[in-house]
Write a structure and sequence with these properties.
This protein is mainly alpha-helical and 168 residues long. It contains 7 helices and no strands. Among the domains are: 76 residues, Helicase, Ruva Protein, domain 3 (Orthogonal Bundle), CATH 1.10.8; 29 residues. The protein is rod-shaped. Keywords: Cytochrome c-type biogenesis, Heme, Iron, Membrane, Metal-binding, Signal, Transmembrane, Transmembrane helix.
Amino acid sequence: MREPSAVPRLLPAAACLLLSAALALSPAQESRAERLGNNLRCPICTGVPITESTNDISREMLRDVRGQVAAGRSDREIYAYFAARYGNFVLLDPPKEGSNLLLWGAPLAALAAGGAVLWGFLHRRRPVGEAAVMPVTEDPFDPYLAEVQRHTGQERARPSGTRDGGQA
């Protein structure tokens, strides 16, 4: 009987060791991969970046990010890869271009429109002093005013400085 060789059993371990050595990142690359992972949303979790998620898809995505950082791809290329694979939903900070400009610009346009309406409303109102003193107008066509004046005994032209019909 032949004794099994130790070489076939060591091949998978050596392959894993070589693969991990190939993906060994420098501290700068590791921090860049972490930053990129913080901007990618887990496709299963709601609003959780792949660096904080514990499911298998997120771990695989983070492995892909590390592999692409090790390959020397730019941030834009890495985001484009994941957006093509999972859709723009996967980007926690979608790009400010194309149809996304509407999503970024709509709140600013609404804020500007609200400010314009408020400015117009505030400048259309009369000043406080003018609203407090209302000019008395003699309107011959106001029957209600004439009726009130007749019932209260007020005269139309009262001497200044006198009260109750001319008594000082």
